[in-house]
Amino acid sequence: MDRYYARFSSNHPWMHLSFLAIVAAIFCISCYQLLVNEELIFAVGLAIPVVTIPFFAMAANYKRKYMHD
Fold first, then answer.
1. Residue 68 pLDDT > 80, yes or no?
2. Sequence-distant (≥ 6) Cβ neighbours of residue 60 within 8 angstroms
3. What is the pLDDT of residues 14-35, one digit of tens each?
4. pLDDT for 69
5. Average pLDDT of span 57-66
6. Distance (Å, rounded) from C-alpha 64 to C-alpha 43?
7. Whole-angstrom Cα distance, residue 45 to residue 50?
8. 23: Cβ–Cβ under 8 A, 6 or more apart, which residues?
9. Residue 39 phi/psi, 5° resolution?
10. How many CB atoms are located within 10 Å of the residue 39 CB?
């Protein structure tokens, strides 16, 4: 799966940057809502980056090792 995303991110860098921006926005908004509203339901938004960032890291590692520009 990370191999396919590495190829996708190489072919479509703007889509990859938009995915990163969306994940960062979800994290920031969830942190803000968690601090302001003090409701634990907003902690779900913190779980999304925990799952996606290692996936992006594995794809970047594959890209660095096996895909040469």
1. no
2. 6
3. 999 999 999 999 999 999 999 9
4. 59
5. 91
6. 33
7. 9
8. 48, 49, 52, 53
9. -115, 135
10. 9
On whether the CB atoms of residues 67 and 13 are closer than 8 A, the answer is no
pTM score > 0.85 for this model? no
Q: Are 49 and 26 in contact (CB under 8 A)?
A: yes
Please choose, from the candidates 44, 2, 7, the residue with its C-alpha nearest in 3D space to the C-alpha of residue 26. Answer: 44
Name the maximum alpha-carbon separation found in the chain: 47
| CA torsion angle 7 52 58 68 (round to 10) | 30
Annotate 26-61 with DSSP letters as a single string.
HHHHHHHHHHHH--GGGGHHHHHHHHHHHHHHHHHH
Per-residue model confidence (pLDDT) at position 1: 83
**Residues with Cβ within 8 Å of residue 19, at least 6 apart in sequence:** 56
